[in-house]
Amino acid sequence: MTGDKSILIKNIYYMLTYAFQILRHDNYDEIATEDFDNVYDMFAAILGKGVSKQLKQGLYKEYVLYEDDLSTLRGHLDFQSTIKNKLAKKQKLYCHFDDLSVDNLYNRILKTTMWFLIRNSDVKPERKALLKKNLLYFDEVDSIEKSEIKWDTIRFQKNNQNYRMLLNVCNLVLEGLIISTEKDEIKWANFIDEQRMCRLYEKFILEYYRYHHPYLHPNADQILWDLDDGIADFLPIMQTDITLKKADRALIIDAKYYSHTMQIQYDTYTIHSNNLYQIFTYVKNLDKDDTGNVAGLLLYAKTTDKMQPDHTYQMGGNTIGVKTLDLNCDFVEIKKQLDNIACQHFGVLESA
């Protein structure tokens, strides 16, 4: 996806503000007014501000298991090791005990990501200076190898909710890197990879509708299979990206972020077949009574391909649309595009 890179980078920031509403808070306001030449400079700005804010509240701590020789009993006594101390004439108790520590996975990821951004030549000096200042408070925190981070195992709860946005930014940064093991150099990808942009794109659209049009009850719904005998063994889960509902009408949106919005074979353009089969299946199973009140929409991020889909089909009594969302324009225009989609399916929109 090409075009005016600064506009697209700014729109990635706006997408992040919807996906993670903490970015709407006052201390991030100046970031929204800046023009960024590259995505890593923008991430450095967000992370610099975000970590500074977190330092004022205190770094997240977790209980960590320690083992040590102590003068007094603490935690669980290791009898065998304590006897060895006695035999060695050491008047110490060997104990296993828990203690709150900032040296945990969450802070290790923050520290590692800040170091990577400091080493990126595209990040401006003033951003690096703030990151270096933040790192002064991470002396007790170890770094972590990128390959050791199991992103899908990270969980958030009440005490570390503020880390959700920060670690998602870290994910976008670290997983965008290409590591050269030959010379131990960091080579930077020009942009966020397609898979991660797709997840951000999906979450942005969902949160946009939740924020501006809550009366449409936007949600990522699970659709039950319309089964004759009720046996659903081994059938896959049908999870929508976005479902909008108003009265007896529903619109299922499947958000797609691809390098090419259409597939081509022998100079013939067609819609991605798997995408079309999927949205049709979702629509027909949700509209099990064949009312025709359920519609589907494949919403692709617009690319520079000469052929861009903009079609509406009537399939088995339901409407299936295929459109693109232009992200390479001012954000007010992006809002108009999303509002128009809802308006076309539900009529006059209410004010949020």
TrEMBL record:
User: Is Hydrolase there in the keyword field?
Assistant: yes
Which GO terms fall under biological process for this protein? DNA restriction-modification system
Q: What class of enzyme is it?
A: hydrolase
Output the Gene Ontology terms for molecular function. Answer: endonuclease activity; hydrolase activity
Keyword annotations from UniProtKB, A to Z: Endonuclease, Hydrolase, Nuclease
Q: What is its EC number?
A: 3.1.21.-
* Pfam family, any one: McrBC
InterPro entries, alphabetized: McrC (IPR019292), McrC_bac (IPR014407)
Name of protein: 5-methylcytosine-specific restriction endonuclease system specificity protein McrC
- Organism, as annotated: Hominibacterium faecale
Q: What is the lineage of its organism?
A: Bacteria, Bacillati, Bacillota, Clostridia, Peptostreptococcales
